[in-house]
Each structure stands twice: as C-alpha cells, then as structure tokens.
Design a protein that fits this description.
Low-confidence stretches: none
Strand order of the largest sheet: 1-2
Number of strands: 2
Oligomer: single chain
Radius of gyration: 15 Å
Helix content: 40-55%
Distance between the termini: 34 Å
Largest sheet: 2 strands, antiparallel
Structural class: mainly alpha
Mean pLDDT: 94
Number of helices: 6
Length: about 140
Amino acid sequence: MNFTEYLFDKDVISDIIRERKKGLVANRGFSNLLAFGLGVIAERLSKDRLRYRDYGPYWWALKEVMNANGYHLGDQSDPLIKQAYHGDSDIETMIMADEFRTEYLKSQMIHSNQFMLDSESGEFWTLFDIDMETSARK
C-alpha cells in the first residue's frame, strides 16, 4: 500500500507549532507545548477512550509519544503505519495528529475508524487498538 493521504507539509506544521507556542506563552504563561498538548489529549481520552480513533493513522505514533511521556496506553502498535504517519519530533507528531483530528472530524462521524490511506487503490485501512477498545468497554 502506498500512503498518499493525510500527509502534512513540514513547513506548515512548523508554522503551527510556532504559533501555538506563542499562544501558550501569551495565554498560559508557559511554553511546554508538548506537555500541555498531551494533557489535553489525555483529558479527551479519559472522557471517551474510543476517541483515540479521531487521530486516524497518526494514532500509533501519538500513542508512542504519550507512552514515552508517562501516559500508559498499552503496547499494541502498527509499525508500518506508525512509520508513515509521524513527525520528526514528538511535538510534530502531536501537532500532526491533532491537525488530522481537526480536519477529519469536519467531515466524518465520531468513532469512525475506516481511513483511505492510498487513493490509488481505494482500499480502506481500519484502525483498531485493542488496548483502547478493551478499556473503553470496561
């Protein structure tokens, strides 16, 4: 499968990071964008674990970043998808995942987990993280 969809321009992501850091300093008085952003995501997930699906193919890289920063979300992963959908840093990965979420939710229903990652084949990929699905049912 070729990964042709939902990819971001690195310069656009860098600009978003700069703007969000400035906003965080202006509005909150601190600049740790990664810690703040991961806290926001963790809060979203604490209310509804199935909202991990909002992050689509970026979920696996985001999950790794969250696990590395003290959020224990389990060990399941998809190395192929994670390799294709991640940033060059933890902050880039988090921002890409959040940008994906924002754009995707404009046109898709909450809890959708089918994503067309290759426009040439038209095949859909299904996001299913047993760690999150199992916790959501408890």
